[in-house]
């Protein structure tokens, strides 16, 4: 089983990068362009607007696999910041459990992006295409 699945690991990495970027991109679209309409993102403060811009631009870069390692590293840091500021300490008092503070997605994105920062974008990416040309 391991040999059969391991040959697909490089393609799975590229797919994982694309899906992670797409999910972050959708948050950026919702925050910046208000689509789809989500009441929580109706009147966002400047910090959340900035987070949305980062998610929009860097999420798009992650989808196509351009500058994957630095982009993923920045997004990992943003998600860690989002978890602590926007979830864990949202009420002022720390709420430690992600199930109680709705921070599960931020944690998952943080470590997904941290993995991509170390693993790279995979063979199906603009990074790989540019490496072949250079």
Structure description:
The protein is an all-alpha fold and 134 residues long. Helix content is 73%, strand content 0%. It is globular, with a radius of gyration of 16 Å. The chain starts with a helix and ends with a helix. The mean pLDDT is 96.
Blueprint of the fold:
Blueprint: H1 2-6, H2 9-33, H3 46-64, H4 68-88, H5 98-101, H6 104-119, H7 126-133
Helix pairs in contact: 2-3, 2-6, 3-4, 4-6
Number-wise, the strands total 0
* Cα shape: globular
Uncertain stretches of 5 or more adjacent residues? none
Query: What value does the average pLDDT take?
Result: 96
Largest sheet: none
Percentage of residues in helical conformation: over 70%
Proportion in β-strands:
under 5%
Rg (CA only): 16 Å
Contiguous helical run count: 7
Structural class: mainly alpha
Q: How far is the first residue's CA from the last residue's CA?
A: 36 Å
What sequence of helices (H) and strands (E) makes up the elements?
HHHHHHH
């Amino acid at each position: 089983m391991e040999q059969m699945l391991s040959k697909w690991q490089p393609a799975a990495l590229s797919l994982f990068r694309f899906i992670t970027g797409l999910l972050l991109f959708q948050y950026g679209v919702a925050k910046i362009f208000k689509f789809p309409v989500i009441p929580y993102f109706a009147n966002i403060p400047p910090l959340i607007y900035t987070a949305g811009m980062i998610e929009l631009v860097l999420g798009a870069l992650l989808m196509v696999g351009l500058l994957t390692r630095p982009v993923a590293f920045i997004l990992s840091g943003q998600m860690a910041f989002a978890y602590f500021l926007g979830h864990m300490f949202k009420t002022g008092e720390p709420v430690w459990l992600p199930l109680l503070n709705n921070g599960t997605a931020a944690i998952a994105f943080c470590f997904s992006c941290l993995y991509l920062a170390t693993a790279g974008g995979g063979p199906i990416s603009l990074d790989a295409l540019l490496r072949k040309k250079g």
